[in-house]
Amino acid sequence: MPGMTTPCHVWTGACDKDGYGVTSVNRKYVRAHVVGFILENGLPDDGHQVLHHCDNPPCVRGNHLFGGTQLENHQDKARKGRSPVPWAKTHPEQVLRGDAHPSSKLNAEQVQELRRDYIPRKVPLRYFAEKFGVAETTVHWALRGGTWKETVAIHGD
Ligand SMILES: [Zn+2]
Predict the structure, then answer these.
(1) pLDDT category of residue 46 using cuts at 50, 70 and 90
(2) How many CA atoms lie within 13 A of 116 on its CB side?
(3) How many angstroms is it from 57 CA to the middle of ligand 1?
(4) 129 phi and psi angles, rounded to 5 deg
(5) Closest C-alpha among 102, 20, 82 to residue 57
(6) Other C-beta atoms lying within 10 Å of the C-beta of residue 13
(7) Which of 1, 21, 73, 135 is 20 to 30 A from 90 in CA distance terms?
(8) Ion ligand 1 nearby residues (CB, 5 A)
(9) Which residues contact 127 (CB under 8 A, 6 or more apart)?
């Protein structure tokens, strides 16, 4: 298994309830291991999560991380003897999928960042949804404009 001959780089900052290191990028909450992965490997493929070879949630070492699907994540954890964390618990924003009005909203700054950084077919909506803690539909709406223009105007820049 790649990466296992090198020691973990364990995040020493804040961790979330699942034990993953958390930090902020441009003042946005983001899981530290995702940043570690992106710095080393670039953005994960569409629909992929950033997973640990070393099964050590606070580890942020790029070569201990790999992109995989939710199913692969479950299989990986099962193989390592860890029961999968319920989807609804780890991905509440996915549960909201299809809901006409997700409760979470993006602020003006997030919308600006989204519109600046979004690259169709390169940077998936899901990446921003997870980064901002909102539903993918919310990200989609923000990209398409609509009510978000009002938010931007109110807050100014
Ligand atoms: Zn590690």
Answers:
(1) confident
(2) 7
(3) 8
(4) -60, -45
(5) 20
(6) 11
(7) 1
(8) 8, 54, 56, 59, 61, 64
(9) 43, 44
